[in-house]
Amino acid sequence: MAISDGAIVALLVGKLRDGGMTTFSFILSAVCFAYLLLLSLKSGKSSAT
């Protein structure tokens, strides 16, 4: 599912960029990366010591 979602986001970014909405396409990419960052921080796996 992650691969298909990544393909959909890339398609949306490309369509936005072709439509002249370059700034919004970069904002969409930044939002997706921020979401992934939050998910990774939320998992909170601690290292074994």
Provide the descriptors you would attach to this structure in a database record.
single chain; mainly alpha; 2 helices; 80% helix
Order of helices and strands: HH
- Report the uncertain regions: none
Can you count the beta strands?
A: 0
Average of pLDDT: 81
- The tally of helices reads 2
Helix fraction bin: over 70%
CA radius of gyration: 15 Å
User: What kind of sheet is the major sheet?
Assistant: none
Strand-residue fraction? under 5%
Overall SS class: mainly alpha
State the distance separating the first and last CA atoms: 34 Å
Shape: elongated
Q: How would you characterize this protein structure?
A:
It is a single chain. The chain is mainly alpha-helical. Helices cover 80% and strands 0% of the residues. The protein contains 2 helices and no strands. Helix 1 runs antiparallel to helix 2. It is elongated, with a radius of gyration of 15 Å. The termini are far apart. The model has no long low-confidence stretch (mean pLDDT 81).
Question: What is the gist of this entry?
Answer:
By secondary structure, the chain is mostly helical.
Strands, helices and their partners?
Layout: H1 2-18, H2 22-43
Helix pairs in contact: 1-2
